[in-house]
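Review box. Two proteins, two foldings.
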Amino acid sequence: MTEANSRKADYPLEAFFLERWSPRAFIVEPMPDEDLRTIFEAARWAPSSFNSQPWRFLYAKRDAPDFAKFLGLLIEFNQSWAKNASVLAVLVSKKTFLPSGKTEPVASHSHSLDAGAAWGYLALQASRLGYAAHGMTGFDIERAAVDLNVPDDCRVEMAFALGRPGDKSTLPESLRARELPSSRNPQSTFVFEGGFPTR
């Protein structure tokens, strides 16, 4: 079976799925615009209901004035390591879409799911370029909506950090032991033929 990054798949698959993980240690360096645009381009091609593409990415590069604003949205624990990232970003999903041939927007049942697909594509592309993407829900979601001018018909989904993986010695001591790829639950815990098992 496929093995990579000290992890082993139960069934054959492309190794890049195992190579991607979410480190917290980053090299303190800027990210070239062409690399960042390639990462966002991958998100662009994610599938979405009615091809509505409800994802919106708001970001700040570490050498830009807005970086401090994005960093300040994170809880203190996440600030302790995300401060070294090349880019900090927030993913937002649009809760409505305009169907073809209609004049009024309608509610989107899958806006969060579709935004999640875009995040997955982005994270995989970042990994393919030698970067890491670490997602977070530990941030002030309500303040993010205000400080980042998020429209009322959008939902703040998550924050994330992007950068080149660095040495774990740069992390606070309490995080160093956790700086390794994590395992995954087996398919038997989340894949059920014919419906949920009866008790």
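Next protein.
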Amino acid sequence: MVLLPKIPALKTPSVDAARKKELQIFEKHAGIRFRKLEFLNLAFSHRSFSNETASDIDNNEKLEFLGDSVLGLVVSDYLFRIMSERPEGELARIKSFVVSEDSLAAIAKNIKVDNYILIGKGEEYSGGREKKAILADCMEAIFGAYYLDSGFKNAQSFILKYLVPEIEKVLANKHRKDYKTLLQEYVQKKYKSYPKYNLVKKTGPDHDRTFWIEVAIKDMTFGPGTGKNKKEAEQKVAGIAYETLTKDESDKN
């Protein structure tokens, strides 16, 4: 039997009386209880905050890395148990919707993660608390922190509490569509080709970029779609292309 190494010392932001009260309010709202509130506080520590803090503290990115893996295992295990008769490709497709940035950001907003994130002034001024990427990453960091603090079973219960409803939305086809996947599947089937995404331009300062992306399919170009990151812009333009192509096809029938 291989013994796991101890959890390394983490340089967590300090938890004074006021911050402790805030974190306890979050725990009550989210339905979890940490043994060490320092882990939870670190999960809320965005890179911009740690960079602007005079003291040497970590950010939440390593917890996010861990939480992403824990989340993936929990969701994969659950799908395998309830849908063992379905092919692997379908399970993977459902999982991709459920653990998407959109899904995790919505869960984060639901449990008011945005109220507790520690971010730097630049991110604060540019609306960082509302950015989907920051919210989704923080949610994964919370999953990772809770796994370290309270073990896999407790983390599994916490994750399923919020992810099972997302799975049910996908099964009922009431989820937000992953247009990049839908477009790729359509183009492969219809044209035996792949969509090609091209960055047209970037606008705005470094801390508040807007990306403009077009998608090329055979001899057709759609877009541009815009977003605060490439992934968001690609989803927007994929939606434009998919809706246009499928509408044209239905109009011909």
